[in-house]
Amino acid sequence: MIAVRQFEEGDAQALASTMKEMVSFYGKPLAVAGSLSEDIIRQSKAIFIAVALSDDRLAGFATFGFLYPVAGLRSFAYLQQIYVASEFRRLGVAQKLMAFVARTCLDHGCTWMEWTTGQDNTAAQTFYEGLGATAVEKVGYELTGAALNKLASAAE
Question: For the structural domain made of 2-153, what CATH number should be given?
Fold first, then answer.
């Protein structure tokens, strides 16, 4: 049975292991200096982290937060990441995580949630459409490296 709840500090080590799997899955280098578990605990003070458990084993997680104001001066939930550990895929874990985020969204007075996925991630797109989500046309931007540093230096 899959249970989903809000992250607790005692989950940090298991979540760190699952996040390392995710980083490898996406082919990215681990960019955390120091203890990943401590970083997760620190980050959990600023964002929401939901964890999915199967027989007390961490099966997946979702990170999300709330943004305000947006059009109509409403707040909405933004799902930053959802990840299911490889051994727990196709067992309904992602569905349970998304339902938890949706419930938390409504509990915080939000009327919608948003997220993105890669254009080539058709499996995720099929899953999201199966939840009743619709794809929207937006242009995403990233600011990294030298460009990020240059813009930040303009604030000094």
Answer: 3.40.630.30
